[in-house]
Amino acid sequence: MNQTLRITEIFYSLQGEARTVGLPTVFVRLTGCPLRCQYCDTAYAFSGGEIMTLEQILARVASYQPRYVCVTGGEPLAQPNCIPLLMALCDAGYEVSLETSGALDIAPVDTRVSRVVDLKTPGSAEVGRNRYENMAQLTRNDQVKFVICSREDYDWAVSKIIEYRLEQRAGEVLMSPSHHQLEARSLAGWIIADNLPVRLQLQLHKYLWNDEPGH
User: Fold this and answer.
1) What is the dihedral of CA 208, 212, 214, 215, to 10 degrees?
2) Which helix (H) or strand (E) holds 91?
């Protein structure tokens, strides 16, 4: 029996964040997520979707002739067949990234994949879902992301960067202001004042397409 996944959408756009920001990328958005972050911008991926085989997904991705592929959600790792999908995408020669909430085990993910792992701040309303065991799994190919809602969130994130030595474990430590909740200029000022070893990101897709599906 063919391995299948429930897919919300597959589309070609510009990467809006993380290490490959601005680069043309195919996004494979899996359906479903066990978290309910208060700032979620992809609630349309919580349910519905279309059942597709790995072969169908790979054929759709190949039709765009991409260099970069991002598997996202929802929470992709909530579907067990995400693991063989990531492996198959790497085998096909793409540069693959995975966007994950950080609530599920990242250890089974192919090491060729750049795992973009969230650490949920108190302001997310899901801080209790962080799986801190993932921090020991990080490599220089991986990225850690904080979405910052307030000064309290920022101070909490700084404490986690220090506690887990994230700038040494991961290739990138990323901070984004929660859109419409925190001014990017405020976050930039705090990072500069603390000489923090992180990259500020502004989620390009929000400024270009205002979170419209398919972008």
Assistant:
1) 20
2) helix 82-91
- Which residue ranges are tagged as binding site for S-adenosyl-L-methionine? 39-41, 74
DSSP string, 172-204: EEEEEEPTTTS-HHHHHHHHHHHT-S-EE---H
Binding residues for [4Fe-4S] cluster: 33, 37, 40
What is the average per-residue pLDDT within 144-170? 97
What are phi and psi for residue 43, nearest 5 degrees?
-60, -20
Give the pTM: 0.93
Known binding-site residues for Mg(2+) equal 42
Let me know how long the chain is. 215
Is residue 30 within a helix (H) or strand (E), and if so which, with residue range?
strand 24-30
